[in-house]
C-alpha cells in the first residue's frame, strides 16, 4: 500500500485522480470477490455439516425402502431362479434324447415353467390374491361408510319422509304454527308424529319447511303457494310476489343514506319476506295494503336520553324540534333541571318500521377544560389575586361511531381522540403582601349592591345620570380630596386599568356573580392592573381630575354587555345620601 501511495505521489494531478479512481475500483472488485469466496465456503461447510448430521436418518430411510423393494421383487427373483433351474432340466432332457428336445420335452418344460411350484401362474395367482384382498377390504370399508341412517317420520299414521332428527319435526311444527296462526287467527291442525330409525342409502332427508308443506297438504285446508312476511318472527301474512315490498323496504332505508361511506343502515326490527312455502289461502294479503302499513306510523312514545353537557336549546337542535313542541310533549321542560340519563319525550308516534343508522363521524371539540394554577405573590396584597396568565380551552379531534334511530341520536361510541390544541392553564397570583391601614374600606353592602366607593362625598349631577352633556354615562361623586382612596364597590376581576380618553385614568372591574362591569374614572393614580382580582372595599385608585373633568371627583358607572345603565340602581345608598343637581 505504501509503495502504491509513493508511486501515485510522483505523478501529475490528473494522473493522480485517474489512478486513485482505478485503485478504488480495483479495491471494490477485490473486496466483492473475497466476500463471494467466503460466502461460498460457508454455504459448502453448512451443506456438508447438514449431510453428515442426517447420515443416520438417510441410512434408516434407505434400509426401509430396500426392504420394501426386496419384498415386492421377491416373487420375481424366485421366478428367475426357478427359470434357471428349468434351464438345467431342459439340458438333461436334451441329453436323454440325443441332443433334441422333442414335442413331449417341450410340453413338459412349458408346463413346468407356467404351472410349476414357482411358475408364472403361481406368481400371478399370489399377486392376484393380494390385490383382491385389498380391493375387498376397501369395498367393505366404503360400504360401511355409505350406510346412511335417518329418522323415518309418520304424521297421523301417514309416511311423510326422512329427517335427520326429531328436532326437525319440532321446528316444522313451529313453521306450521306461524303460517296458520296470524293476526289473531286461531286454527289448530292436529299432527301426531311417530318415529323409527331406518337405513336410507342415498335418499336425502327433508327440511323443516318441506315437512311443514307436507303437513299442510295433508290437512285438507285450502292452500296457496306464497312468501311469508314476518316482523320479529310475527307472521303478517303471505304474498304471491314480494318484489314491490322489497322495493318499498329498500326505499325506506335509502332515504336515510348520506355521503358518509362508513354508515351501516338497517331496520331495528328483524324482517323476513322471502320465505317461500304453502300458506292458508285466507292468509294471502294485498301487497299494496302491506306497503301502506309499512310506510305508516304507529302510536309509540319515543324518548331522547340526556347527555352530560346538554342544554334545553341543544336538545331541541339534536331532535329537530322547537322548544314549544318539546314543552308541549314535556310540560315544565323549560324550567326543569337537566341531568345525564334523563328521558325527554320527543314524539307520541314513530314510524311503523324504525330505521337504525350507524356512521363514523369526525368532529372538533374546542371546550377541553384548562386547569387553574395558583402561587403566592408578595407583591399583591392579602385578600387579592391577580391573573398572570389567562386560561384557554384546548381543542380535540374526535372520531366516534354514532347511532341514530329514525334520525335521533341514541348512542355515541368514541373510538379515537386526537389532540389538536393543548389547554393553556390559568395562572393566578394569590396576594401575601400585608395590607396597610386604609387599603380596605370598612363596612359591606347589601347582596347585589355596590359599596359606596369613597369615604364621604355626594352625588353631583347636571340633571339625570345620563343627561346634562353628551356622553356622560354615569354619576359623579364630588366632595372628595385629591388622591383620596377609591374603593372597589364589589369583588371581581380588573378588565381595564389605564388611560381611557375623556375618562382619564380609569379602572373597569367585571363582577361575574352580578354579570355587570363597574367603571371608576378621572383618577389621579391607579393601584391595580389588568387581570388582577380585587375584593369588595379594596383600594383601587386615588381620586383626581384627569381626562375630561371639571373639578376633583370620581366618575362611577355600571355597564351590562358594554351598554351603560343607571348606576344609582346598583349603589347601596340611603335616602339621606346628599344629591346636588345642577342645571
3D structure, described in words:
There is one protein chain. Helices cover 33% and strands 32% of the residues. It is built from eleven helices and 27 strands. A hairpin with a 2-residue loop joins β25 and β26. It starts with a helix and ends with a strand. The relative contact order is 0.06. The model has no long low-confidence stretch (mean pLDDT 79).
Through-space gap between termini: 113 Å
| Share in helix | 25-40%
The main pleated sheet reads as:
12 strands, mixed
Q: Low-confidence runs (pLDDT<50, min 5 residues)?
A: none
Relative strand content: 25-35%
Rg for CA atoms: 53 Å
| Number of discrete helical segments | 11
Q: How many runs of DSSP E, i.e. beta strands?
A: 27
Instruction: Average the pLDDT over all residues and give the rounded result.
Output: 79
Give the overall silhouette. Answer: elongated
Class of secondary structure makeup: alpha+beta
Question: Secondary structure elements and their pairing?
Answer:
Elements: H1 2-9, H2 13-53, H3 55-96, H4 102-115, H5 120-146, E1 149-155, E2 158-163, H6 166-180, E3 193-199, H7 208-217, E4 223-231, E5 234-239, H8 243-254, E6 264-267, E7 271-280, H9 287-294, E8 297-305, H10 312-319, H11 323-329, E9 343-351, E10 355-368, E11 372-381, E12 385-389, E13 394-405, E14 408-421, E15 426-433, E16 458-461, E17 475-478, E18 485-487, E19 492-499, E20 505-511, E21 516-523, E22 525-526, E23 532-534, E24 539-542, E25 554-560, E26 563-565, E27 579-581
Parallel strand pairs: 11-15, 16-27
Antiparallel strand pairs: 1-2, 1-3, 4-5, 4-7, 6-10, 8-9, 10-13, 12-15, 12-23, 13-14, 16-17, 17-25, 18-24, 19-20, 19-23, 20-21, 21-25, 22-24, 25-26
Helix pairs in contact: 3-4, 6-7, 8-9
Amino acid at each position: 500500500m505504501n509503495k502504491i501511495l509513493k508511486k501515485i505521489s510522483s505523478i501529475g494531478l490528473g494522473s493522480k485522480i485517474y489512478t486513485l479512481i482505478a485503485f478504488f475500483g480495483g479495491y471494490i472488485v477485490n473486496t466483492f470477490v473475497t466476500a463471494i469466496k467466503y460466502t461460498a465456503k460457508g454455504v459448502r461447510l453448512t451443506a456438508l455439516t447438514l449431510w453428515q448430521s442426517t447420515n443416520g436418518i438417510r441410512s434408516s430411510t434407505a434400509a426401509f425402502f430396500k426392504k420394501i423393494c426386496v419384498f415386492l421383487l421377491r416373487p420375481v427373483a424366485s421366478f428367475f431362479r426357478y427359470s434357471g433351474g428349468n434351464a438345467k432340466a431342459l439340458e438333461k432332457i436334451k441329453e436323454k434324447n440325443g441332443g433334441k428336445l422333442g414335442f413331449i420335452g417341450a410340453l413338459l418344460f412349458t408346463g413346468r415353467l407356467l404351472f410349476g411350484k414357482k411358475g408364472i401362474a403361481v406368481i400371478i395367482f399370489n399377486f392376484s390374491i393380494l390385490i383382491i384382498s385389498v380391493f375387498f377390504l376397501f369395498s367393505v370399508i366404503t360400504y360401511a361408510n355409505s350406510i346412511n341412517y335417518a329418522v323415518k317420520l309418520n304424521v297421523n299414521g301417514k309416511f311423510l319422509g326422512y329427517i335427520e332428527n326429531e328436532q326437525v319435526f319440532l321446528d316444522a311444527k313451529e313453521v306450521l304454527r306461524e303460517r296458520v296462526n296470524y293476526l289473531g287467527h286461531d286454527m289448530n291442525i292436529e299432527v301426531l308424529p311417530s318415529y323409527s330409525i331406518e337405513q336410507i342409502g342415498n335418499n336425502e332427508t327433508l327440511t323443516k319447511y318441506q315437512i311443514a308443506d307436507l303437513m299442510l297438504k295433508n290437512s285438507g285446508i285450502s292452500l296457496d303457494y306464497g312468501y311469508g312476511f314476518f316482523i320479529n318472527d310475527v307472521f303478517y301474512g303471505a304474498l304471491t310476489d314480494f318484489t314491490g315490498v322489497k322495493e318499498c323496504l329498500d326505499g325506506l332505508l335509502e332515504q336515510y343514506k348520506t355521503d358518509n361511506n362508513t354508515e351501516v343502515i338497517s331496520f331495528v326490527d328483524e324482517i323476513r319476506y322471502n320465505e317461500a312455502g304453502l300458506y292458508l289461502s285466507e292468509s294471502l294479503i294485498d301487497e299494496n295494503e302491506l306497503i301502506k302499513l309499512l310506510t305508516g306510523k304507529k302510536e309509540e312514545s319515543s324518548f331522547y336520553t340526556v347527555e352530560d353537557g346538554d342544554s334545553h336549546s341543544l336538545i331541541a337542535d339534536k331532535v329537530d324540534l322547537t322548544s314549544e313542541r318539546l314543552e308541549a310533549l314535556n310540560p315544565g321542560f323549560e324550567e326543569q333541571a337537566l341531568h345525564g340519563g334523563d328521558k325527554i319525550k320527543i314524539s307520541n308516534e314513530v314510524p311503523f318500521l324504525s330505521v337504525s343508522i350507524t356512521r363514523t363521524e369526525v368532529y372538533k371539540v374546542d371546550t377541553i377544560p384548562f386547569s387553574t394554577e395558583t402561587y403566592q405573590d408578595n407583591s399583591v396584597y392579602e385578600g387579592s389575586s391577580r391573573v398572570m396568565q389567562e386560561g384557554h380551552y384546548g381543542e380535540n379531534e374526535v372520531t366516534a361511531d354514532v347511532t341514530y334511530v329514525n334520525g335521533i341520536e341514541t348512542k355515541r361510541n368514541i373510538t379515537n381522540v386526537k389532540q389538536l390544541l393543548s389547554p393553556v392553564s390559568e395562572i393566578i397570583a394569590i396576594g401575601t403582601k400585608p395590607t396597610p391601614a386604609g387599603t380596605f374600606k370598612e363596612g359591606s353592602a347589601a347582596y347585589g349592591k355596590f359599596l359606596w366607593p369613597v369615604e364621604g362625598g355626594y352625588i353631583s349631577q347636571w340633571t339625570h345620570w345620563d343627561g346634562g352633556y353628551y356622553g356622560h354615562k354615569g354619576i359623579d361623586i364630588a366632595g372628595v380630596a385629591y388622591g383620596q382612596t377609591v374603593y372597589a364597590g364589589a369583588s371581581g376581576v380588573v378588565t381595564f386599568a389605564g388611560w381611557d380618553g375623556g375618562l382619564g385614568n380609569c379602572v373597569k372591574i367585571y363582577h361575574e356573580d352580578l354579570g355587570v362591569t363597574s367603571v371608576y374614572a378621572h383618577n389621579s393614580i391607579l393601584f391595580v392592573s389588568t387581570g388582577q382580582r380585587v375584593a369588595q372595599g379594596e383600594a383601587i385608585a386615588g381620586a383626581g381630575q384627569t381626562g375630561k373633568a371639571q373639578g376633583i371627583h370620581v366618575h362611577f358607572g355600571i355597564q351590562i354587555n358594554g351598554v351603560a345603565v343607571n348606576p344609582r340602581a346598583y349603589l347601596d345608598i340611603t335616602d339621606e345620601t346628599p344629591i346636588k343637581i345642577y342645571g
